[in-house]
Design goal:
Distance between the termini: 19 Å
Largest sheet: 8 strands, mixed
Helix content: 40-55%
Number of helices: 15
Number of strands: 14
Shape: globular
Strand order of the largest sheet: 3-4-2-1-5-6-7-8
Strand content: 15-25%
Length: 399
């Protein structure tokens, strides 16, 4: 597969497990697999200290971990600038290739310049491209009405940096390719498929039939899911399952919207049908809990990939998700095959969930299809594509 083992450096502000977001989780798992294959990997960014989480993998901090997000879970401009200022401290001696995420943008021109001077190829992985969606995601504060244009400009400008760009979904790849005026390949996120399958066998058969797992931020539209659950609880199907299972829905995760979600549950008197599990200690705990459900529900309005749906599929749990032009979940979950898509309305979501919970044969068929599809996203397969991209870039640089 490889001409020789490469020396990789992954640069990002957050490093797993000190932070548990999608990008740092991808870096951690990719590093594990690359190290297993004999490559040397450095994870560089904000961390409390150096470490060796896997064979052939080292954590080399450029600064101590700090508070990364402002209100509602967003990075601040100050933190983006701080990360950019740390680019000069990245240990590039002996490195064959550098990989970084597109976010938080401001580090890209400085990192591209350092790599260009060292003749080290820079691979930029794009996890999302928002464009005009920035108008909805603008930061809080007195200047926020016009600030979305500044952030959209930063995103557009930064898309031009890097020796090569890849994206985790076709949705993002198409958007970035328009800016770069060149094709952008898809290298998706992955999952430890066999580990999830093994843990699925340990699941609780009496768990709530519906599950959501992920970061609790407004874009995930958990309020919509709670309203749909309330409607479902008023049906005969919902009442029966709530009595049998102790709850209809289990919510797993934490984040800036957690207090609002708890208040919603209390206000609407949903404590009897919603089990708020909060953040679980380990990924293995999440996978085991997800595997006990009949259906995974992802109501999010914005998903650059869809890691929770993919993990649920690997556990044999079909996925119901809400349609959105800013969500790539439909690339993973094909409608009426591994799951079902529905308009983002509480009534329609509740009706679909009721119908599916009364159709075990359809859910079982989707479960089998989901496992089969998820197997194609194992980290070993994803790592092979990353290595192929890395070898190609190194060959071109040395030719």
């Amino acid at each position: 597969m490889t001409e020789r083992p490469l020396r990789w450096l992954f640069f990002y502000d957050c490093i797993y497990p000190e932070s548990v977001g999608g990008v740092e989780h991808r870096n951690y798992e990719l590093a594990r697999e690359l190290g297993r294959l004999g490559h040397e990997v450095i994870l560089s960014g904000w961390a409390n200290g150096p470490g060796e989480p896997h064979p052939n993998v080292r954590v080399v901090p450029v600064a101590r971990a700090s508070r990364r997000y402002v209100a509602r879970g967003r990075r601040s401009s100050i933190e983006a600038l701080t990360l950019a200022s740390q680019v000069r401290r990245i240990p590039l001696d002996g490195i064959d290739i550098v990989e970084t995420a597109n976010i938080p943008y401001l580090h890209l021109p400085l990192l591209a310049r350092r790599c260009r001077r060292r003749r080290i190829p820079l691979l930029v992985t794009w996890h999302e491209h928002w464009g005009r969606y920035w108008r909805k995601h603008r930061p809080p504060g007195r200047f926020s009405p016009g600030m979305w244009r500044f952030y959209a400009l930063c995103e557009h400008w930064s898309a031009r940096f890097g020796t090569r760009a890849v994206a985790v979904s076709r949705l993002t790849a198409d958007r970035v390719s328009k800016v770069r005026s060149q094709a952008v390949d898809v290298v998706p996120n992955g999952i430890p498929f066999e580990r999830i399958r093994a843990l699925a066998a340990e699941s609780d058969a009496n768990a709530p039939p519906l599950v959501y797992a992920g970061r609790l931020i407004p874009e995930k539209q958990i309020d919509l899911l709670l309203d749909a659950t309330a409607r479902l609880a008023a049906t005969g199907t919902g009442r029966g399952l709530a009595t049998e299972r102790g709850a209809l829905l289990r919510i797993i995760g934490g984040g800036p919207a957690e207090n609002d979600i708890r208040a919603h549950i209390e206000r609407e008197k949903l404590a009897g049908v919603v089990d708020f599990a909060g953040r679980l200690p380990e990924n293995e705990d999440v996978w085991r809990a997800v595997a006990g459900a009949h259906l995974a529900v992802q109501p999010s309005a914005r998903e650059g990939f869809g890691l929770f749906p993919l993990e649920a599929m690997a556990a044999g749990v079909p996925v119901v998700h809400c349609k959105s032009p800013n969500s790539a979940v439909s690339e993973l979950v094909r409608d009426d095959r591994e799951g079902w898509a529905v308009d983002p309305h509480a009534g329609e979501l509740a009706s679909l969930l009721e119908r599916l919970l009364d159709a075990p044969a359809a859910v079982a068929a989707a479960s089998r299809a989901a496992v089969e599809r998820a197997a194609g996203y194992d980290w070993r397969q994803v790592a092979a594509r990353v290595i192929e991209a890395g070898n190609d870039l190194v060959r071109r640089e040395r030719s």
